[in-house]
Write a structure and sequence with these properties.
The protein is α+β, with helices and mostly antiparallel strands. The protein has twelve helices and 36 strands. A hairpin with a 3-residue loop joins strand 32 and strand 33.
């Protein structure tokens, strides 16, 4: 056995002689450099390397300017160290192959490594540009078992070093004292950490470049307290946005069950801070508070929130952190929602809302929404200001029920107002492709209530039914039994086409509150562009009779001809419309009369008429002018022309009767020719 012991001692002596002598160091140096070269993305060179039995001196150069220095004493026999180190790296990305996650940027740190294998401490100080920190890491068997770190950091530098976009900057005061650290099972760790973020500012330029959002230059501050006990971590956060908005939460994480149990409160004084994030303009206050309970499989968020008098309660159910079900109910003030969405307050109403969604998947949205609107009023002042509509005092109420199945919403709506009422049996809206289809029934008891739209008084009522469809363009159909007949209309995009069948002109005059001058049936077609307010009207009137009026009475006194007894089997009216100015050509014939008008103008906006009628009554040719107010126009006749024509016709009659025997045929022809 002695010879074996001798061999072992000799072998150990030779190895130690090889390793811990200049000759051995020279042999180890290229091996170490090659191993480093394989793991570091830059040239690595050991400028100094001295390994002895009880000491180590090493200086490693990386790239051109990076350097790592390690020197001090160690003992193989009792496994203890007493060393100092210094690290000066200009780009941490060189070491990403050795890191659990990629890093970048400079790092300077230095410190000491002191202790034995079962109780060792690494203590040092470091910096990232302007960030400064001190740390102590406790090790057992060369594994971290405790951590104490404190420092003054810059948020922008931390984000840059961890390869996140530096969207904000702030001063961070950090203090962490983890007495027991278990990297394999973090839930067993115990300790506490305090993070205080002050003087925070959003980097608006970085946010705009990275996320295409324009945020206001908003100050913020955050306080975070983390307490880690055995299998439990409690996080308390208090954040302040701007000067008067706060976000607070107190959450406990249970490691054994991998679950959370917490509460939160959000109080934002002005939502305009979030307009860019939401993608729509917002302003006004908002508050909410509630609880969060569950684990990574199932989580429930319950709370309530609102703005001033608007208050809602909600419950959101998540599976694997994806929203699956939602319940929401409460009383909502319409004017507060409009204000919140930065919209003019065109109406006020109290809304009771109930939402129960059993599936929140985008392509299979399923649930029910019930809405009841009470005490609604329109804001006449704003409607006049923005749309030039003189809307009278209008109140309304409504009820709507919406069933949603596979992202298709089916609604029934019942709305009543002092202007009109609206009913729909089935309104379908597809959230997948944005298509829309609905039936409707509109009842207007008093058409005069629509004067703010028609720009003139109307008499009577109307009921309109039809359908509304939107696929690639908007299309609206309408039908109404009105004016003694029926109207059918089609609105496609901004073009309106309408037909009136078997209507009565007397009913039309009565509705328009115009004098009743002609009684007949009417069939008409209208083509009108709602965008340009221009169109054409073609009407055919059958079996018509002129009603007694100032003109008929004037003509009867002058000619002893009763125009009201004539029957006009067919009357044609062709009109062009330009912003409530109607220009018409008229042609009407009876057994004894002919009446024509060319370019007669009816200005509905100013309630005026300007027309010249060319009338032939038996053998009378009478030009008649009608102009002035539609309700009481001025009517003029060319009496000289009328009596000249009457005298000529009388002389022709005398030539044929009284002078027939006294004149030769040639003389009679000559005299009649002179009368033309």
């Amino acid at each position: 056995m002695r010879w074996l012991t001798g061999v072992i001692l000799l072998t150990v002596t030779l190895l130690m002689g090889l390793l811990f002598t200049p000759f051995g160091n020279a042999a180890l140096k290229p091996l170490i450099e090659s191993q480093l070269q394989e793991r570091i993305a830059a040239p690595a060179r050991l400028e100094q390397f001295s390994l002895g039995l009880f000491h180590l001196n090493m200086t490693l150069h990386i790239a051109k300017a990076d350097r790592i220095v390690l020197h001090g004493a160690y003992s193989i026999f009792d496994q203890s160290v007493d060393m100092t180190y210094a690290v000066d790296v200009h780009d941490l990305s060189l070491f990403n192959a050795l890191m659990p996650r990629p890093l970048q940027g400079p790092l300077q740190t230095s410190g000491t490594i002191v202790g034995e294998r079962d109780s060792m401490a690494v203590q040092g100080r470091g910096s990232l540009i302007q960030s400064r920190f001190d740390y102590i890491v406790s090790l057992q068997d060369f594994e971290p078992k405790g951590l104490n770190i404190q420092g003054d950091l810059k948020l922008q530098e931390i984000l840059h070093a961890t390869m996140f976009t530096p969207v904000a900057d702030a001063d961070i005061a950090l203090h962490a004292d983890i007495q027991r650290l278990d990297l394999n099972r973090l839930e067993r760790s115990t300790g506490e950490a305090f993070i205080k973020v002050n003087e925070g500012r959003i980097n608006t330029k970085a946010v705009r470049q990275e996320y295409n959002m324009t945020l206001a230059d908003t100050p913020f501050a955050v306080d975070i307290n983390l307490t880690m006990a055995q299998s439990e971590a409690d996080i308390v956060m208090d954040a302040r946005i701007a000067e008067d908005s706060k976000i607070a939460c107190d959450t406990t994480f249970h490691a054994a069950t991998q679950s959370v149990d917490g509460m939160y409160r959000i109080d934002i004084k002005d939502l305009s801070l979030l307009s860019a994030i939401a993608g729509i303009p917002l302003h006004g206050p908002f508050h909410t508070n509630g609880t969060v309970k569950g684990n990574h499989k199932q989580t429930t968020i319950e709370g309530d929130g609102g703005i001033v008098s608007t208050q809602v309660q909600y419950s959101l159910f998540l599976e694997k952190f994806e929203a699956k079900r939602l319940k929401l109910n409460g009383d909502v003030a319409l004017h507060e929602l409009l204000y919140l969405a930065a919209q003019p307050i065109y109406a006020r109403a109290d809304i009771n809302l109930l939402v129960a969604m059993s599936n929140l998947e985008k392509e299979a949205l399923t649930g029910v929404v019930k809405t009841q609107v009470n005490s609604g009023t329109l804001n006449s002042v704003l409607l006049q200001r923005d749309f030039n509509l003189s809307v009278p005092l209008t109140t309304f109420k409504a009820e709507a029920t919406t069933q949603i199945v596979d992202s298709v919403a089916s609604s029934s709506i019942d709305m009543i107002s002092t202007i009109a009422s609206l009913q729909t049996q089935e309104t379908l809206f597809s959230m997948k492709d944005g298509t829309f289809h609905s039936d409707y029934k509109v009842i207007v008891d008093d058409l005069n209530a629509l004067q703010f739209v028609t720009q003139r008084p109307l008499r009577g009522g109307a009921t309109v039914t039809g359908e509304v469809t939107y696929r690639t363009d908007l299309e609206v159909t309408a039908h109404s039994d009105i004016l003694g007949g029926n109207i059918d209309a089609l609105l496609r995009h901004n073009k309106l086409s309408a037909t009136l069948q078997e209507g009565r002109t007397t009913a039309l005059s009565n509705m328009l509150m115009l004098p009743n001058v002609f009684a007949s049936t009417i069939n008409a077609t209208l083509d009108y562009n709602l965008l340009s307010n221009k169109g054409r009207l073609a009407a055919r009137l059958a079996e018509g009779k002129i009603q007694p009026n100032v003109l008929t009475r004037m003509l009867q006194r002058a000619t002893r001809f009763d125009l009201t007894q004539e029957v006009y089997e067919m009357t044609e009216l062709n009109s062009t419309i330009d912003n409530q100015v109607v220009t018409s050509n008229l042609s009407m014939h009876s057994r004894l009369t002919t009446i024509k008008a060319r370019d007669a103008v009816l200005n509905l906006r100013r309630n005026r008429i300007d027309a010249t009628l060319d009338m032939i009554l038996e053998h009378y040719r009478i030009p008649v002018t009608v102009h002035g107010d539609i309700d009481a126009p001025h009517i003029g006749m060319d009496a000289n022309k009328m009596f000249q024509d009457e005298g000529k016709e009388r002389l022709k009659e005398l030539i044929d009767t009284k002078l027939d025997d006294a004149l030769s045929p040639e003389a009679k022809a000559l005299l009649k020719g002179l009368l033309h």
